[in-house]
Design a protein that fits this description.
249 residues, alpha+beta, Arc Repressor Mutant, subunit A, Endonuclease, Chain A, 2 domains, seven-stranded mixed sheet, two-stranded antiparallel sheet, 9 strands, 51% helix
Length: 249
């Protein structure tokens, strides 16, 4: 319990062993500390120096021999306060350069395509759609196939978040999935048109901002591909509206 607590505040295994040895030994030479702690003689001076720098140990010379002793245990609280102050200062320094770091990230070339695997990958991309779009912007979707009930429950919940945010959702849904339509039709900013049942496919293509997300809805191995390209996104939007404008509600 003591070992674990000291480790959580940042002491290394060697520092903890030497610190605990000193607590029991009192003022001691390195020979006794080495024997008690199990730290080799070649390393014990280095460890003692680190403890001294943390204010947790000190040394004195007696008859030409160097002795070490541990500080009062309450010194650990002072060490934590100093550590907190140091972290706060470092945090302020990082905050100062944060705009520069963000600028560098935004100016860096981005990958045109990313692949997300599994159910968690699908959730990540769905979150990206909702977080990327602003009120009044469009989320265009076409496709879909039979999904596990747990998937539909999750996506229906996320559609409520989308509607609350004011994002417009237009979906070209296969006519045989009117159950999904019924669950979402009364949400604000929500529009559906139906594709013939012959157009069923295990894929949902979602267009948003300058991205196209292709959800491959295979229960055993769902995969999502996100293409980030204004040219590609604009092309898919034209394709979507070419269909949208020629099918019935």
């Amino acid at each position: 319990m003591i070992y674990d607590a000291l480790k959580r505040i940042g002491l290394t295994g060697g520092e903890i062993k030497v610190y605990l040895a000193l607590l029991e030994l009192g003022s001691s030479s390195t020979g006794r500390i080495t024997k008690k702690s199990g730290i080799s003689g070649s390393k014990v001076y280095e460890v003692l120096d680190r403890l001294a720098n943390k204010g947790l140990a000190s040394s004195t010379i007696k008859n030409g021999v160097k002795y070490f002793e541990v500080a009062q245990p309450t010194k650990i609280l002072e060490y934590l306060e100093e550590k907190k102050e140091s972290v706060d200062k470092e945090k302020q320094e990082i905050l100062k350069i944060m705009p520069q770091l963000i600028l560098k990230q935004h100016s860096a070339p981005k990958a045109e395509a990313k692949v997300y695997t599994g159910w968690e990958g699908m959730k990540t991309v769905n979150e990206d759609i909702i977080n990327t779009l602003k009120k009044g912007e469009e989320w265009l979707e076409m496709g879909l196939t039979t999904q596990p009930e747990s998937w539909e429950n999750y996506f229906n919940k996320k559609q409520k978040e989308r509607a609350k945010k004011g994002i417009i959702h237009k979906s070209l849904l296969n006519i045989q999935y009117k159950g999904l339509y019924a669950a979402r039709k009364n949400l604000p900013h929500t529009y559906y048109k139906f594709l013939p049942k012959e157009f069923e496919m295990p894929i949902s293509t979602d267009i948003y901002s300058n991205k196209v997300a292709i959800f491959i809805l295979l229960k055993e191995a769902p995969t999502t591909i996100v293409i980030e390209s204004k040219i590609v996104a604009d092309s898919f939007k034209k394709y979507f509206y070419a269909i949208w404008n020629n099918v019935k509600k």
